[in-house]
Design brief:
mainly alpha, 5 helices, single chain
Length: about 140
C-alpha cells in the first residue's frame, strides 16, 4: 500500500527528474550557439553561487532551475564539438542516459551482499580487458 508520504516523495522525485531532463535538453540544444568559453572570475562565480543554506528544504525541481540560472555564465560548451579539441567532453547519448540510470538505481558496489548485480560488472570488465589486451601472461581469463 502506498502512503501519502510515499506518493509525495515519488511525485517530487519525478518532478525533479523531469526538470533535470528539461534543463539538460535545453543545454544540449544550445550547444551549436553556446560560447565555447565563458570566463567569469572566481569572484563573479562566488557572487552568483555562494549563499547560506536555507533554514528549510526547497523544492528539488526549483533548486535545479535556480542552480542552472546562477551557474549559467560559468558553464562551458564542453560537450560540444568546438570545445578546444580537448578530449574532456562530448558525452554520447548512451553514456548520458546510462549515467542518469546508474544514479537513479544508486547501487553500492562495495560488497556482494549490498548489490550482487553491481559487483559482477567489475569482474566481467576485468576479464574483457584482459581479452582485449591479450594479457595471457598474467594468468587465465575467467
Amino acid at each position: 500500500m502506498t502512503t501519502g508520504t510515499d506518493f509525495t516523495v515519488a511525485t517530487t522525485t519525478q518532478r525533479a527528474l523531469a526538470k533535470a531532463h528539461e534543463l539538460a535538453c535545453a543545454f544540449l540544444a544550445s550547444l551549436p550557439e553556446r560560447p565555447v568559453s565563458l570566463v567569469p572570475s572566481a569572484d563573479e562565480m562566488a557572487t552568483d553561487l555562494d549563499e547560506a543554506l536555507p533554514e528549510t528544504g526547497s523544492d528539488p525541481a526549483a533548486v535545479l532551475e535556480e542552480w542552472v540560472t546562477r551557474a549559467e555564465r560559468g558553464i562551458t560548451a564542453s560537450p560540444g564539438p568546438r570545445f578546444f579539441g580537448f578530449v574532456t567532453g562530448g558525452v554520447t547519448p548512451a553514456a548520458l542516459a546510462g549515467d542518469w540510470l546508474a544514479s537513479a538505481i544508486d547501487q553500492n558496489a562495495g560488497l556482494w551482499a549490498s548489490s550482487p548485480r553491481q559487483r559482477r560488472p567489475s569482474s566481467s570488465s576485468c576479464a574483457g580487458l584482459k581479452r582485449c589486451s591479450d594479457c595471457r601472461q598474467h594468468g587465465p581469463v575467467p
